[in-house]
Specification:
Helix content: 40-55%
Strand order of the largest sheet: 1-3-4-11-6-9
Order of helices and strands: EHEEEEEEEEEEHHHHHHHHHH
Largest sheet: 6 strands, antiparallel
Structural class: alpha+beta
CATH class of the largest domain: Mainly Beta
CATH superfamily of the largest domain: Regulatory protein AraC
Distance between the termini: 54 Å
Strand content: 15-25%
Length: about 325
């Protein structure tokens, strides 16, 4: 196991590029504080487990001149541990919350961005190993594997439990642990394949109906995956599958729509006398401090800053 803690942004970029592949990384925000970033690596048997922590950055492998000079073809399975992040790969966008994961191929461009302190784990799996557990892995690249689906949660939880304990495990046991981990990942991938709706027209119709239902119930505190499944008379499993191609989980989609509704209300002159707290409560953010954090994470300004600018423009 190796741990690198970089106090300079340039050193952290070097550590990341050496661990994965050459990457173009830009620091986000206007903070003048010293940059803090860490990367921890552990070799299992055939695969590696890395834990990465850093302040806000934007990573774009397509912009690095050395990107085409990669020596090893590997798949990167990124698990969100802290904060939220956005991953773009193969024309798909995955918005990750803690417990979610997505898969990228390191010989194809991808983008990763987050705007505050972030922590994630990455399984680095060689092509030949991935081919053994999932020959059609290309079908799953860039998709969101949301933690509200049981098979996905099992993989995420296993990785989270392994992070702090891997260095205490004997080599012969590590081999078995890697086997179990890859089997869990294969199970999660096969579960998605089994859930694929053969009638795409029907799936599109269902998704449109569900989004209409969500928009009509943003002020309903009972709005949840359970509520939607019951109203639409579909299973929760099928509901989650419909949102896989959207790159966002059902719960996250609801939250984003509620944030957008709050944003519109904050910018409306007709609601200028309505307090920010009342607006948050109106759209079912029962924890106002949580609302402020979510709003700033999504729009990079506080609700108050947004309202002042919107009403004065």
């Amino acid at each position: 196991m190796s741990v690198e803690t970089a106090t300079k942004f340039e050193n952290w970029v070097t550590d990341i590029s050496e661990a994965f592949s050459p990457m173009h990384i830009v620091r986000q925000g206007k903070s003048k504080r010293p940059f803090v970033g860490e990367i921890e690596q552990s070799d299992l048997n055939h695969i590696r487990l890395c834990t990465v922590k850093s302040e806000a950055v934007c990573i774009d492998t397509a912009m690095d001149d050395k990107f085409t000079q990669l020596s090893g073809k590997e798949y990167l399975v990124k698990f969100q541990l802290r904060g939220n992040s956005r991953v773009e790969h193969r024309g798909k966008v995955a918005e990750l919350s803690p417990g979610d994961f997505t898969i990228c191929y390191n010989e194809e461009p991808f983008q990763l961005a987050f705007n505050k302190l972030n922590k994630h784990a990455v399984l680095v799996i060689p092509c030949e190993q991935m081919a053994k557990i999932c020959p059609n892995i290309n079908n799953y690249l860039g998709l969101l594997f949301a933690q509200d689906i049981t098979t996905n949660a099992l993989v995420s939880q296993y990785v989270m439990n392994l992070i702090d304990k891997v260095h205490t495990i004997s080599p012969d046991i590590v081999v078995r642990i890697e086997h179990i981990l890859l089997e869990l990942l294969a199970t999660a991938l096969s579960a998605v394949e089994m859930q694929i709706e053969p009638d795409t027209t029907s799936a599109t119709t269902h998704l449109k109906s569900i989004k209409t239902l969500i928009l009509a119930n943003l002020d309903n505190p009972d709005l949840s995956p359970e509520y939607i499944a019951n109203e639409e008379q579909i299973s929760k499993r099928y509901l989650h599958q419909l949102f896989v191609a959207e790159g966002v989980s059902v719960s996250r989609y609801i939250q984003l729509q509620r944030l957008e509704a709050c944003k519109k209300a904050l910018g409306s002159p007709n609601l200028a006398n309505m307090s920010i707290t009342d607006i948050a409560l109106e759209w079912c953010f029962s924890d106002v401090s949580h609302f402020h954090r979510c709003f700033k994470a999504q729009y990079q300004v506080t609700p108050r800053q947004f309202r002042l600018k919107a009403l004065n423009d």
